[in-house]
Design goal:
alpha+beta, 14-stranded mixed beta sheet
């Protein structure tokens, strides 16, 4: 009897055609004697549809062709199920795959996604929403909003919007953070909620990140000018506590003095004034090397 797999593809992520990738993935499944069910995301009821497909077919694995946002969508649909996720990185942001060392050749990614062992990773919930990788308040969320509203996608789109966002950024915001039974006050340009080390660009924003340690980090960037920006993108994360501070914890609340732009895993989510954050330890099974 053939085993079932579901293949979830985001046809618009990454701004490139995916037919060849999908065809090769379907062929790989066929050669492994697997019964594959293909689902293309549409932006309408995707979580509900993926959940229904899982309940009908009970797959051993779900293969995801997309980026961080697509992975998060599938994770939301199957968070309580015993199923392994196989990742074929194909999005505008592939930070989750990068942190799991899955930026391989396409052929090797297929092999890992379908056949390799799994690792149990943590996920974060923020105001009840799942975050698998990196979310943040402030400058980067503004960048993502500008990127989503722009006409140029892919890495060029991010690059073009980065400088514009940095120059157009407004005043810092004030945040009260409760974590580890303490309360902290900050004036910040950006706060990252991190379950990993790197953004999809490869930039290390959280040197302490471990994806299955039962902790997440709050990276508070107090200053963010061209010098700090240059240090970060060149791999030299500032260590001066006047510029950046990192809090490691398993739960936290962030209260803001005014609405601040917020993003989860590369998707702009509007503005927020309060975040309730907690870790869900080893919640997700992901195929790895």
């Amino acid at each position: 009897m053939k085993k079932n797999i579901i293949i979830v593809v985001n046809p618009v992520s990454g701004a490139f055609e995916k037919k060849e990738i999908v065809d090769s993935t379907l062929l790989f499944a066929k050669n492994e004697n697997l019964e594959s069910i293909l689902y293309e995301t549409s932006g309408t009821k995707d979580v509900e549809n993926i959940k229904n497909l899982y309940n009908i077919h009970k797959p051993e694995r779900i293969i995801i062709i997309g980026g961080d946002g697509t992975i998060r969508m599938v994770a939301e649909a199957i968070a309580k199920e015993d199923v392994i996720l196989g990742i074929i990185p194909a999005g505008s942001a592939n930070g989750f795959a990068l942190d799991l060392d899955l930026q391989l050749t396409f052929e090797k990614n297929l092999e890992v996604a379908f056949l390799h062992q799994f690792m149990e990773v943590d996920i974060i919930t923020i105001n009840g929403k799942i975050s698998i990788h990196l979310s943040d308040l402030g400058l980067n969320a503004e960048l993502i909003k500008n990127y989503e509203q722009g006409e140029i996608h892919g890495k060029w789109g991010y690059a073009l919007n980065t400088i514009t966002t940095l120059f157009d950024s407004g005043n810092p915001f004030t945040a009260k953070i409760k974590a580890n039974n303490e309360t902290f006050g900050y004036v910040a340009r950006m706060i990252v909620i991190a379950n990993a080390k790197k953004y999809g660009t490869g930039v290390v924003i959280n040197p302490n990140g471990v994806m299955n340690d039962g902790k997440f980090e709050l990276v508070i960037l107090k200053n963010f000018d061209l010098i700090i920006f240059g240090q970060i993108i060149s791999g030299n994360m500032p260590s001066d506590p006047d510029d950046v501070e990192i809090i490691s914890t398993d739960k936290a609340t962030i209260e803001l003095d005014a609405p601040v732009s917020f993003q989860i895993d590369g998707e702009y989510c509007g503005t927020e004034t309060k975040l309730d954050i907690k870790i869900l330890h080893k919640q997700l099974k992901v195929a790895v090397l």
